[in-house]
Amino acid sequence: MRYESNNRVSFDETIHGSSDFEFFDDDDDDDEGDDDDIALDVPSDDDEEALARPVKRASPEPPRDPAVWLANSLMTRTEAALRLARHLLTSHLAAGDVRLCLSGREALVRYRPRFPVVRFLKERGCELAEAHHDRSTPADEEWRGRYVMKCVPYALVLHSELDGPDLVTPLAHGGRLIAHVNRGRLTTSRSPGEHKLLRAALGRALTYPYEPADLGAAVVPRSQRYRTLAGQWRRAPAVIRAGLLILTVDRAGNVDGLEPLQIGQ
Q1: β-pair partners for 181
Q2: First to last CA, the chain
Q3: Pairwise CA distance, residues 31 & 27, whole Å
Q4: Going by DSSP bridges, is the β-strand pair 245-249/255-256 parallel, antiparallel, or unpaired?
Q5: Which tens digit of pLDDT belongs to each residue from 216-229?
Q6: d(CA 82, CA 73)
Q7: In angstroms, what is the C-alpha Rg of the chain?
Q8: Which candidate, 37, 35, 31, places its Cα nearest to that of 14?
Q9: pTM for the whole structure
């Protein structure tokens, strides 16, 4: 599958036109001014000073239609978190507002295609009822705020506060579901990174300072590799002792691993 916008940039090509630009890198710990944005200017073989001088690449032009996020085989952290949040609300597993932190590169960093948060939610019946404006974002691009759906008693609240879990919502038994989300490919690739990405989500889930009644979860997209890993690691002694859930989310609206919550309703 390929996407081409009016400026003829396809989603499976890099914006710079070089293979070292990771279009879908949404890691929080990658700085905008890191070494990946630096290239060497090589005007001639005899100009040693120019050869050694680092120069910044030109700022890439993002695609005009950010729906490339949804056409790609990689589900970002933002998409996985939004799909989980909506499922918790529409299935009435949440006993209060779902608070969701979107702090990945796809939502905040300049010169990257912004994930179409408002459009994504609106197409799925979620309307922005109250915007929470941030000075760093133009008013017409603001996605932070409170979203509501018809026949759903609670709201989805989006924010970008750092140093917290990705998703928090109260549960019927009085505790909270606290979810830590990571990205992943939905199709098989030659260099799988599912082990590393799921371990990262589990590491955050295991080390979070929960309250006694809280329930922690690691969340990843629902690919064949992730389903296999989730099935194996749910039986791991450390995961069982910690009482952690491992959830997988797909683009059809399905979430696997929520059975303990459904039993407790």
Answers
A1: 219
A2: 41
A3: 9
A4: antiparallel
A5: 999 999 999 999 99
A6: 17
A7: 20
A8: 37
A9: 0.74
